[in-house]
Amino acid sequence: MNSPTLTDTGSEFIGDIQGHDEFLADIAASLSTGRMHHAWLLTGPVGIGKASMARLAAAWLLSEDARSGALFGIDRPDININAEDAGTSLVLKGAHPDYKIITPHTEDNKSGQIKIDQIRELLPFMMHKPARDGWRVAIIDSMDDVNRNGANALLKLLEEPPEQAVIFLIASHIGHLPPTIRSRCRLVRMTRLAPDACMKALGRIWPDADRNQLEILGKLSQGAPGQAVQLASSGAADLYQVACALLQSSPLDQPALANLCAKWGRGTTAGRETRAGAVYCINRLLRRAALRASNIKADELCEFEIPVIERLASSHSAEQLARFHDAFVTNAAKAEGLYLDFSRFLERHLTKIYQKTLP
């Protein structure tokens, strides 16, 4: 497919924002009534724009010309922001003194977690008087990467919130959060974008991309533009197509499969997104094969997926495929958590998929 190259324009914040109108309306209503909640928990599938919406809200809250009740406009949730506004511009550049975003450190961090020290640094930041006499806004992206010790350290801030301070917590797996965290936040459930909205968002991210490329990424991401970006930027989408081609060839080209897995499952910290993309794609393949075996219509499939899914569904029962899917997901998590050779793990499982589909 040769995935498109990302444009670095900051367009995810500016212009016609797709979806999540209810969240924007809630922020607008809270500000206009003077009842802004101190903690917002944004939850939903990976890649649907939770963190982007939080950063957008931060850009508005910290804009120089923000006026109470007119932040987004109660009657106009399809917001546009002024990127030339001094406060907004500083947020978009990550340089506003009253704005802080916490993400996992990329260097010397095999676990990929947000460390407890990062959470502790947030406390004095939020407690201090705003430098520009407005709000203090923090984002944790994401709580899925914060362990229990970090969550406990965050409780003090949630239990004793300072004035003029707002924190946005991002979580894709809300069930993993302690109840003490969930109960102190205003919960915002976000959903996947409709196909048309997703395609429109992808078109803004990749304005020069081929329509066929965007359609493939749209189908693979299932209404989650951020997921599409990860699949494209990590190379996982392209590698998935190669995997599907190999799994329907005869005989299996084992050297080519080993070469694919060496690229797709590289074990460095920098390769974490690529490995996650591998799990996402094989997870998708097995789930849809199980649905096909049950005669249940799956979501839109890419053309290159159909022959493999048909082969799997005709060779195995839905129950067998469901068990194989569960085993793959469970073992993938163990391999990642124990820092095992992920490329070898992936090669073994893809070979097993191929062998199980032989006549």
Topology:
Elements: H1 21-32, E1 39-43, H2 50-61, H3 86-92, E2 99-102, H4 116-127, E3 136-141, H5 148-159, E4 165-171, H6 179-182, E5 186-189, H7 195-205, H8 211-221, H9 225-233, H10 236-247, H11 254-264, H12 272-293, H13 306-315, H14 318-337, H15 342-356
Parallel strand pairs: 1-4, 1-5, 2-3, 3-4
Brief characterization of the structure:
The chain has 359 residues and is α/β, with parallel strands linked by helices. The protein has helices spanning 21-32, 50-61, 86-92, 116-127, 148-159, 179-182, 195-205, 211-221, 225-233, 236-247, 254-264, 272-293, 306-315, 318-337, 342-356; strands at residues 39-43, 99-102, 136-141, 165-171, 186-189.
Distance between the termini: 29 Å
The proportion of residues in beta strands is 5-15%
Which descriptor suits the 3D outline? elongated
How much helix, percentage-wise, in residues?
40-55%
DSSP, total strands: 5
Largest sheet, in brief, is: 5 strands, parallel
Q: Summarize model confidence as the mean pLDDT.
A: 86
Oligomer: single chain
Taken in chain order, the helices and strands follow as HEHHEHEHEHEHHHHHHHHH
Over all CA atoms, what is the radius of gyration? 22 Å
CATH class of the largest domain: Alpha Beta
Look at the structure and name the CATH superfamily of the largest domain. P-loop containing nucleotide triphosphate hydrolases
Number of domains: 2
Order of strands in the sheet with most strands = 2-3-4-1-5
Judged by helices, strands and strand pairing, the structural class is alpha/beta
CATH topology of the largest domain: Rossmann fold
Give the uncertain stretches in residue-range form. Answer: 6-16, 67-79
| SS element count, helices | 15
